[in-house]
Amino acid sequence: MLDRRKALKLLSAGAAAFTFVSAQGSLSSIRKEKNKKHLAMAIDLRRCNGCKACVTSCGVENGNEPDEHRTQVVQVVAESGDKQHALNLPLLCNHCEEPACTPLCPTGATFKREEDGIVVVDSTVCVGCNYCAMACPYTGVRFTNSKTSTIDKCNFCIHRTTRNLLPACVESCTGAARIFGDVNNPDSQISKFLDENEVMVLQSDKNTRPNVFYVGLSQEEADQPYTLHIENTWQR
Ligand code: SF4
Ligand code: SF4
Ligand code: SF4
C-alpha cells in the first residue's frame, strides 16, 4: 500500500502521454452513445485546497459514521528532481464503465444503472459477503456500513442527482474542484471542462474505465494504489 507521505518520482513525458491517451480513450468510449445520459465527475486538483468539506458533507448527507467514508482526500507528496510538491487527491468510487465489483456479487445487489451509468448497491439485497470490495482495485471505496452490515460506497448521491441536484460533495466544495454532470450533454459544465483539459484516470492499467476524471496528476501519481483508509493526522 502506498504511504501517502512517500515521495513520488515523476515519469518520462512518453509515459505521461500514454496515460493521457488511455483516459481520453475511456472518455471517447463513454461518449459513443450520444443520446444517452451518462453521469461522471471531474476533479480539478489545481483547485482542491484539502479542506475536506466534501468528506464532511458526504458523511452528513448520507448518514455515515465519522470513520466510514464514501470519499476521502489523500495528501500526496510528489518529488520532481530536487523539488517537492504536495497535492490533495479526493478519492471515491469511480463508477467504472467495466466495474470489477459487479460480476462477483452473488445476489445482484450491486449493479451499473442503464439509465445513467451510476454503480449502486441495493442494501435490501446485499448480504455483506464483501466479494465486491475484494474485487475492486480501488482500495477502500467500498466498505461495510456498521449500521446496516451491508456494503456501502459512493452512489453519486443518487437521491439528489435523480432530482437534478448536485451531489453533496460537489455543492459543498470550497474550491469548486469537483464538477459533476452528463458527459453526453455538450452544454454541461463537465463536458466543456473535459473538452478543455487533459484528463487522467486512476490506475488505467486495471481496465475498469473510470468515470471519475482528474486534472493535475502525473503518470506515476495516477497509477498509484491509493486507499480511502487513511489516518486523519493532518486534519484540523
Ligand atoms: S471503483 Fe471499484 S467499486 Fe467503484 S465501480 Fe469501479 S470497481 Fe466498482
Ligand atoms: S457523490 Fe455523494 S456519495 Fe459520492 S462522494 Fe460525493 S457526496 Fe459522497
Ligand atoms: S471540498 Fe473541494 S477543495 Fe475541499 S477538499 Fe474537497 S475537493 Fe478539495
Chain-wise SSE layout:
Blueprint: E1 8-9, H1 13-30, E2 39-44, H2 53-62, E3 72-80, E4 83-91, E5 110-112, E6 119-121, H3 131-135, E7 143-144, E8 151-152, H4 158-161, H5 168-172, E9 178-182, H6 189-196, E10 212-215, H7 219-223
Parallel strand pairs: 1-3, 2-10
Antiparallel strand pairs: 2-9, 3-4, 5-6, 7-8
This protein binds iron/sulfur cluster (SF4) (3 copies).
The fraction of residues in strands falls at 15-25%
Low-confidence stretches: 1-19
| Largest sheet, spatial ordering of strands | 1-3-4
Radius of gyration: 17 Å
Count of alpha and pi helical runs: 7
Q: Count of DSSP E strands?
A: 10
What overall geometry do the principal axes of the alpha carbons give?
globular
Distance between the terminal alpha carbons, to the nearest Å?
Answer: 25 Å
Report the major sheet.
3 strands, mixed
Q: Overall pLDDT, averaged?
A: 88
The topology string of helices and strands comes to EHEHEEEEHEEHHEHEH
Each distinct ligand = iron/sulfur cluster
Class from helix and strand fractions: alpha/beta
As a percent range, the share of helical residues equals: 10-25%
